[in-house]
Amino acid sequence: AENALTPDGWRRDVAVTFEGETIAAVTPGAERQGRVVPVLLPAPTNLHSHAFQRALAGLTEARGPSGRDSFWSWRAAMYRFLDILTPEDVEAITAFAQMEMAEAGYSAVAEFHYLHHQPDGTAYAARAEMAARVAAAAAATGLGLTLLPVLYQWGGCDRRPLGPGQRRVGETPDGYAALIAAARDVVKTLPADTRLGTAPHSLRAVDETGLAAALALRASGPLHLHIAEQPAEIAEVQSHRGQRPVAWLLDTAELDAGWCLIHCTHMQPEETLALAKTGAIAGLCPITEANLGDGIFDGARFFGAGGRFGVGTDSNVEISLAGELRLLEYSQRLKTQDHAVLATSARSTGRTLWDNAAGAGAAAAARPSGQIAPGMLADLVVPATDHPDFEGRSGDAILDTWIFSGAGAGVEQLWSAGRHIVQDSAHVARAPITAAYRAVMRKLRASL
Length: 448
Prior knowledge:
Radius of gyration: 21 Å
Distance between the termini: 48 Å
Oligomer: single chain
Strand content: 15-25%
Strand order of the largest sheet: 2-1-5-15-16-17-18
């Protein structure tokens, strides 16, 4: 690499050698040999995805009959869509989404997987049938996978039954334990860098018993949880548990660096500061949060207090790593009316965003990556830098140009645990994966 971002900063003429899935050696100032690339970066992990929702992109942008749309009306439309998907559909959609993630610069994904059952709520003959479809997509794309089966017990804090659109996602704590056991067998069919975690959906959908069950099943894997995404959710939790969700969780659970809390959009300042001190990761999905009108994360306060954050694609309405990072910073500028909000005296805005996405994303997926260093997984990306705007630029300016200038934001090459899955700016299996996705979209068009 003519320029490489290492744990020691930017270095020139860096030779990176892998052995299988792992980086074996990193040597700055080396003679040029082997594959020569202009820029080499540690590739981030997409820390939050609902892959099947990729096929919904563009289908929920009309105003409904009530005259006012919200996250909740979008969710109702999503559940109606979910009811018509077959396992084969989900596999094809997931593979297409994962392919686009790789082409956007992500080397791996933490899949928040809650689609477990048949449309009427009955279990498939194979307990982890749908998880196996997610795994099959990962096998086809080569993208690294952290599988996060979701526990979803109730329709709300009052323990009301799940509604018609939620029958496919419902689990009891005992059923969830069986699902995790079956998912563990599924994960064994994939490469060694695959991980398994747990995901109690939210404090609205999981009661204290369910949360305890998920914690007991966690083992050494990560734990992900939606929290503080919507004002209505916060009001419901506060009404039933006597505290806002983040405050309740901080007082009830022992949060640590293995927790990833998704969205955290509506936190009080004291909650933001306290959460930052725990080491738990804030899983931010700026494009989806903007698409659904969720609100703006208090990033300046959280980052200023030492908080860690990564980014995810959530609903996959637009899969763009540069777009997520750019919107994260721009939303902070709109909120604070300042410029370069997440920059520091030592690192530019783009560098701060990239370092967090790579480091915290890897931690959220329990994935030993996020750095170009010996012993780390070879999760590496070569950004597309052939645009004239990159001429003569070096160091942090490379990242700032890639994220903020609109000068391409594509990638030329990407490796996931040493698997070279993007070559010459396209996924190596783009044609068959796209053909399968097109077939599903034609079928769904006739059903919607």
